[in-house]
Structure formats: structure tokens, C-alpha cells
Amino acid sequence: GQLVESGGGLVQPGGSLRLSCAASGFTFRRYIMNWYRQAPGKERELVASIISAGGSPNYTDSVKGRFTISRDNAKNTVYLQMNSLKPEDTAVYYCNAKDLLFGYDFWGQGTQVTVSS
Predict the structure, then answer these.
(1) pLDDT > 70? residue 54
(2) Which of helix, strand or coil describes residue 101?
(3) In this structure, what DSSP letter does residue 9 have?
(4) Which of 11, 25, 105, 113 sees the fewest Cβ atoms within 10 Å?
């Protein structure tokens, strides 16, 4: 499987960005889709998760109310809408696909998000 992220960049504090992750090579709808991020000198952390059907997305506390994860199974794409961005959101953001049944785990190459004035 392959994941390709896009949409990162430089934005001022309070601004917005929308990340996209296009999937191919696996049955997208069967996978849990996650967004992780890794800031310099810090461990990679799970930001948001979304299952294929039903249920509520999950978010780490620091982004609740500001970030929204969504997916379009027809387009094999997952999104992360990021609003009210803060300098502490600066990181490389990674898309991840997990199949809990068979243990498959795919990662994208990452996209840089920099929040700075």
C-alpha cells in the first residue's frame, strides 16, 4: 500500500490548513486512518483517528475543537482540517493506515506544517 500526503506549508498563527492523504494499493475502506505528527526533538504522537464506518473520530486533547479528520472512501482519501493553528502545531504530519485484523500498517512520507509569524 501507498499513502501520499499533501497540503502542508507555512501559515501564520490562527490560520488554517487542510492536509490530504491519498491511498492506493489496498482496500482503503477496511482500514483505520490516522494522522500522526512529529515535532523536532519529540516523539511521534497520534493526532486524530477515524474508522471506516460509524463511530466518532478521536483526537488528542491538544487539537480537540480545532482539527477535524474526515475520509472519503470513494476517493480513497483522508483529510485533516486544521483551524486556529498554533506555533506548537509545527511538525511533520504523517498519514497512517492500520488494519487491525491482519496487522498491516502503512505510512506516508510526511508533510511539513510550520506555524509562525
Answers:
(1) no
(2) coil
(3) E
(4) 25
Report the SS3 class of residue 28. Answer: helix
Q: What are the tens digits of pLDDT across the range 56-108?
A: 899 999 999 999 999 999 999 999 999 999 999 999 999 999 998 888 999 99
What DSSP character marks residue 29?
G
Could you give the 3-state DSSP secondary structure of residue 112?
strand
SS3 of 30, please? helix
Q: What CA–CA distance (Å, rounded) separates 87 from 95?
A: 21
81 CB neighbour count, 10 Å cutoff: 15
Q: In this predicted structure, what is the pLDDT of residue 76?
A: 96
First-to-last CA distance in the chain?
37
Q: Rounded to whole angstroms, how far apart are CA atoms 66 and 24? A: 28
CA gap 41, 21 in Å, rounded: 25
